[in-house]
Structure formats: C-alpha cells, structure tokens
Amino acid sequence: MSDNNSDEPLAVVGAGVMGTAVAALAVGHGHPVTLIDSSPRAREDAPDRVRFQLRTARMMNALPEDRPVGPLTVAGTQDAAAGASAVIEAVTEDPKEKAAVLAGLAAATGPGTLLVSNTSGVPIEELGDAVPHPEDLVGVHFMNPAYLIPTVEVVLGPRTGDAAARAVHTLLAGLGRRGIVVGDGPGFVTSRLLHRMINDAIELVREGRATPETVDALMRDCIGHRTGPLATADLIGLDNLADSLRVLHDRTGDAAFRPSELLLEKVRRGHLGRKSGRGFYDYEEAIR
C-alpha cells in the first residue's frame, strides 16, 4: 500500500451529492479521478456537477492555486477502479449497497489497495465482512460540502491494518484534510450526536411547537450552531438523513434515532432538501 500524492489516480464510486463533492476535492488537488456510477443519468450530470463545485471551491479559496486540476473520467462499472491508488465508496447510506460496492471494488483493485467507505454511521467492522482483506478498509466521514470542510472523521475498524491507517492519513493530507481518528461503532461521534439533535428538532416542528426558522434561529443565536439543525438536514439530504437514522436505530435500539414521521413524509413527497429544491426550506430559485 503506497503513499498517495497529487498525481496518483483515485476512484470514487457514487456520483451523488457526496461523490461529486469528493471528486471535485480530489481533482482540485491535482488527482486524476475516475468517478463511477451505474446510473446513466448520474454519469451524464456528473461532469457539470463537479465543475460547478470546483468553481464554488475556487470562489471560496478552498483549493490550492499552485496545482493544475486533475482529469475526470466518468465510468459505469467498478472494474474502472483498477489501477487506482485508493478507492472511495460514496453511495447511499444503505449497508447492503455499501457492502456490495466495496466487495466489487476489492475484486477490481486487489489486495493492498486502500478501500475507503464514506459513511456517516455504518460500522467499519460490519462492512469489513464484505471484503476479502478487511485490513485494507477504513472509514472516512467527509462532511458536506467536502471541498469546504477541512476536518473529517477517520474510523479504523478492529481489522484495519497499519498500512491502511498510514495510507488514509497520507491521502487526506494530500487533499488538504485533517483526519481525526475515532472508535468504530454506529454513528461514530458526529452522527451519533448530530443526528439525534436533528431528529429532535424535526419532532419539535412536527409537534407544532416551533417553525423550522424558529428552531434554527434559536440554535444559531443561543447555542452557536453555525447553520441550525434543519438547514443542516436540508444540506445532508433528507433521504440520506432518514437512512442514517435507520442505521443508528437498528444498531443501537435507541428510540431517539427512529426517524420522525415528518421526516419520512417529506422523503415520500420527494422534498429532499437542497438537492431537490425543497425540504424544510425552499431552494427552487437557487437551483434554477
């Protein structure tokens, strides 16, 4: 397992919100990136989404000015990851789908290639059962948007090897990211704390005790939460939030993680937050 630098190729699987943001971060630091997704629509949209995020990152001085942008290749099958120095799985927070993707990536790349699961809550030890060499697997929880937030959670499972632990820190340093190692387990640290708070905030709205604007204003101005929990939920994606809460509820048995019925209703209506134009707030003008 080799150290990573800015000219080593990376593969990212999943061309959704997080996958395209991670791809933008990587090409913005000079890495050649293969972005893989089985959906033709996602592949068609991916280059424009990555370019948009690159422009945003540059406007906010979030990328190094002394590195040329790495090339982006879009592919439809996981065998396109062959030859990558590291692969980052960034599919939806569905444990079975993540496990299947990681198994395919392990087969495409072979032993000794760093396998990174971008997960907000699925234990790395659980995902390790899906790959033949769990010593190559590490969890990294990139925050959204990945090209703006410089600190990430790093999760080393019980079977993660020393080589993978070293390689992930080298990879993150090359992406201008600081990794903080936490213990494995459902939700790790950030999701274990944040998702409970967001779910409680949604319940307050469902109960009619406060509007989304009121909840967020109080949490911003009294508690110091930068955006407020409901604006954060819209940024995460309400479908992704619901999936993450289910993971936490199923694995902890804690009723506080059972997704609020108001959250589930919004997901059923397709009100998924910023990415759909509407969630707890209206973003339709912003995405036109």
TrEMBL record:
SUPFAM superfamilies: 6-phosphogluconate dehydrogenase C-terminal domain-like, NAD(P)-binding Rossmann-fold domains. Keywords: Oxidoreductase. Residues 10-184 form the 3-hydroxyacyl-CoA dehydrogenase NAD binding domain. Residues 187-283 form the 3-hydroxyacyl-CoA dehydrogenase C-terminal domain. The keyword Oxidoreductase applies. Pathway: Lipid metabolism; butanoate metabolism. PANTHER family: 3-HYDROXYACYL-COA DEHYDROGENASE FAMILY PROTEIN, 3-HYDROXYBUTYRYL-COA DEHYDROGENASE. Belongs to the 3-hydroxyacyl-CoA dehydrogenase family. This is 3-hydroxybutyryl-CoA dehydrogenase.
